[in-house]
Amino acid sequence: MKTKESLFKELFEKNSKIIYHLCYGYTGDGDSANDLMQETFIKVWQNLDRFRNQSQISTWVYRIAINTCLSFLRVEKRKATDEISDFILENTIEPISEKEEQVEQLYKCIAQLEENERIIITLVLDEVPYSEIAEISGITEGNLRVKIHRIKNKLTDIYNRYERF
Amino acid sequence: MKDFEEIKRLWLNQSTEPVSSIDEIFVRINEQKKNYTSKLLTQTIAVAIALLFILTVWLTATFITWTSHLSMVIVICCLIYYCRIQVADYLKINKTAFLFKRPDEYISYLKDYKKSRFKLNTKTYQIYVILIGISLFLFAIEMYYILPFLLLLVYIILSIGWIVLCQLFFMKQYNKREGERLEEIINYLERISQQFL
């Protein structure tokens, strides 16, 4: 039988990177992403004894992360949607390599998508299985596949448009 | 020109890593716990001091009318009620089953929660103003018998002034500020809830 602490550590090690990517893709800013990731894991810790094994524990953690992101933008509304792109463009973090610059660019492009699209695409990019994404976002797998197809095209278009400039 | 698979490769090879370690999270968990405890403690101490003060006044002063006793009881009830809702609120924070719901259900929960908090706060505030008004009026009856006319007049003017200030200034300001915030939040939540249908 695992203790609460060892289970939590295992969850953190397995999921922190994906949760961070999700939060970064959602907010478009590293500091906020870090805060949101911390907040997510604090909620995970506080509610770990409530997990009932009805779903995979990772699904449960992603749900908490998504709902935390939704609440965050609720509070930090001014940074959301349209203004978020300006915020990122004004961000003065110097990219170190060409690859990092491209990744930075990719986050900028993701930030231009709708909120639910940002969530879905970051999970797709991190290779979370479609069945799990469907369960996390509460839509059918069929509906999800259609959405993913559309989001992939949209993201590729935005990215290539940016790359031309 | 890149296709989606190239974008995915770029994503999978990124070096973007979370800055926080698990130790930092445990530090934040402990800090939050300390904050809750100290907030709860401060609230409880503040209410306890106020209660003690009122009880001392009630027990040591010799009131000549029953209305003053009723006035004291009303103020004490207000204080206990305030303390109770504050404590309940702290205990509720972050312990909600809605955190695990689907995003659309969570958004609808947030909408209802925000609306009900707004209603509760405005209603509680209104009840506070009414009860304080009644309490000050009941106490004025005692003052009528013991204070000289001029002092009684000052008491009445100050009481009315406080009620008017609460009702017409603080209450309006709160309603305006919170109402605007609520509308912004609801608009945002309605917009994103459409995306999760």
Mean pLDDT of chain B: 85
Q: So how many helices of chain B?
A: 5
- Specify the number of helices of chain A: 8
The total beta strand count of chain A reads 0
Assembly context of the chains: heterodimer
CATH architectural group of chain A:
Up-down Bundle
Biggest sheet overview of chain A: none
CA-based shape of chain B:
elongated
Helix content of chain A: over 70%
Question: Secondary-structure element order of chain A, as H and E?
Answer: HHHHHHHH
Mean pLDDT of chain A: 83
- Judging from the principal axes of the Cα atoms, what is the shape of chain A? globular
Low-pLDDT ranges of chain A: 76-85
Tally of domains of chain A: 1
Topology (elements, then pairings):
The complex is a heterodimer of chains A (165) and B (197).
Chain A: H1 4-27, H2 30-47, H3 57-75, H4 81-90, H5 98-110, H6 115-125, H7 130-137, H8 141-164
Helix pairs in contact in A: 1-2, 1-3, 1-6, 2-3, 3-7, 5-8, 6-8
Chain B: H1 4-12, H2 22-60, H3 66-92, H4 103-146, H5 149-195
Helix pairs in contact in B: 2-3, 3-4, 4-5
Features:
heterodimer, A: 165 residues, mainly alpha, Butyryl-CoA Dehydrogenase, subunit A, domain 3, B: 197 residues, 0% strand
Describe the 3D structure:
The complex is a heterodimer of chains A (165) and B (197). By secondary structure, chain A is mainly alpha-helical. Chain A has one domain: Butyryl-CoA Dehydrogenase, subunit A, domain 3 (Up-down Bundle). Chain A is 77% helix and 0% strand. The longest helix of chain A has 24 residues. About 6% of the residues of chain A have low confidence. Helices cover 84% and strands 0% of the residues of chain B. Chain B starts with a helix and ends with a helix. The model of chain B has no long low-confidence stretch (mean pLDDT 85). By secondary structure, chain B is mainly alpha-helical. The interface between A and B is large, with 58 and 44 residues.
